Amino acid sequence: MRGTIRLFARVKPGRFLEPNTPTGLTGLFTHPAPRSTLIYLYSSTLDKLKHLPEASVYRQSTESLTRHRLKVVESIKPEGYDAWADRAKKQIAEHPEVFNTPTGGVDHEGGSSGKHVKNVRDGRSFVTTELGDEPDERLEEWDGQTLEEPQLEGPKTTAERASQDDIGLRRPGTDRKTLHWEPEPPLDKSQISDMETQIAAGLIEEVIQVAEGELKLVETMAEARVWEELEEKPAEGQWSYFERGTHSPKGQAP
What we know:
The chain has 254 residues and is mainly alpha-helical. It has helices spanning 2-9, 34-49, 57-75, 81-94, 96-99, 137-141, 158-161, 189-199, 204-224, and strands at 115-121, 124-130. Strands 1-2 form a two-stranded antiparallel sheet. Strand 1 (115-121) and strand 2 form a beta hairpin. Helix 2 (34-49) runs antiparallel to helix 3 (57-75) and helix 2 (34-49) runs parallel beside helix 9.
């Protein structure tokens, strides 16, 4: 499927897909890291599904589909993946304070490049980069002093003090460490095509969109507590109209 759509997108031939280029579908662009993104999304979904009862039909069906797709994604590894994984584990072990920073912690790689945060989802470890704000020249003028919005004097309500909970967790501006995080090696075209064929749900970018939607849906289903009985019971025979075989003509007896 991708090969045909890429012809319409006029993408130059090559071994790897160029990130952020048109896919041929309006408004959908080539994802720069589909494999790691899907593994993170699927693991996060499985993590949140654990909060639903095991008897929930939604949990059972979603877990089954998610684990199947996760298995497909994990089975396809880019060239040099094992060597990269070893380097990543070594880097995390050597700098644990960088990847386990509390709220309001240190920005790494020059502030606006963001800070690296280690997350655990369904037993798997991930390093995500939280992008920071664009550098403010006024910070340099004031020797790095943090600029904050002016606040009214006098006693504050509980709601007004809520934003101050992480003040004690902040580190001083001098506590900085520049650390370069090497991204996971990319999949080539043939590997992405193979992944799309096995999942059979369109382009890999479409699969990512579905995974993002499912992750949000889990929260909605958990909030609605869909596994519980209805507050108002349906009337007797309300759904019999939609039962299979209700409107199908009966075959003649042999």
